[in-house]
Amino acid sequence: MNKIKLRLMKTILVPTDFSKCANNAMMYALEIASRRGQSVTALYVVYPNEGVDNNMYDAFFVDNYVQQRLDGMKNWVKKFTRSPHLSKVKVQLECRIGFPVSTITQTAKELNAGMIVMGTTGASGLKGVLLGSVAGGVVSASKLPVYVIPPQAVFRNNARFAFATDFRFTLGKEAIQILRDMLNIQHTGLHVVHVFPEPNGKPDLRSQKALSDKLDTIPHDFHYLHDKNIVRAIQNFMESTDCTGLVAVAHEYSLLHKLFSTSISRSLAHQTKVPILVLHDD
Fold first, then answer.
1. Which domains does the chain show, CATH number per domain?
2. Which long-range contacts does 233-241 make (Cβ < 8 Å, 24+ apart)?
3. Is 246 helix (H, G, I), strand (E, B) or coil?
4. Residue of 267 and 188 predicted with greater confidence
């Protein structure tokens, strides 16, 4: 069995804080896993000082605190696996002490996970911390596909995806296969969208052909927009075409870095009702 097929069969890692947004991410992960024959691993990250009152005596209760979180996770998972089509998905539980971004990425690496599915907002184990900022950190730190799920998103068997691109990346065979597989799960093709900030911007047909060749048998078409506000343009396009998912590629100069910057991520990742599938280039 080749590396790509092995990746598609690996576990899906779902960080959770028991919030509504984490609930939705878990539901998405289970729906994907049930269709791909995968398992799901739920991860709760305990901050180093969570549940401890900073004295030597309380430090002895850390193990008990972790066990409490694991017991809570067992009850949490039961809510999702009651559905007949999800009941056969194998779910494993992990509770680790550390800081969210590093712990999530390290756990994914240790478990040899094939994908990370996580929410955009939540408590993240520490009051006042947004999972949205954690999601951005995980996207930057991990080389795995990351599926970022907003609380309003609804999993659909028949979906429509937009692929926001600046054409400055190289997608490898594994990323293309993951994209193809995810699109097949939701029975959809791909609208490739490029936004020109200048009013006289023109398509680069060579770049278009190169990407089209990479996408190969994935049904796709190209759309070119002109707007100084890239996020607004993407949002307007997705609303006008009833897109239910967004695909982006993480690389040093990509649009994705703008999407997850402090100012823009709140206007796109937090306001949009659709999930974002983040792939990594070669």
1. 3-147 (3.40.50.620), 161-280 (3.40.50.620)
2. 233/195, 234/162, 234/164, 234/193, 234/195, 234/268, 235/268, 235/271, 235/272, 237/162, 237/191, 237/193, 238/162, 238/272, 238/274, 241/160, 241/162, 241/191
3. strand
4. 188
Enter the pTM of the model.
0.85
**Rounded CA gap, 234 and 60, in Å?**
51
Residue 230: both structure tokens together? 């890239």
Question: At 60, is the pLDDT very low, low, confident or very high (cuts 50, 70, 90)?
Answer: low
- Rounded Cα–Cα distance for residues 181 and 11 (Å): 15
Output b/e per residue, 62-89; b: 16+ Cβ within 10 A. eeebbeebeeebeebbeebbeeeebeeb
Tell me the H-state helices in the chain. 3-9, 20-36, 62-78, 100-111, 131-141, 173-185, 205-215, 230-240, 255-259, 262-268
CA nearest 124: which of 21, 257, 274, 277? 21
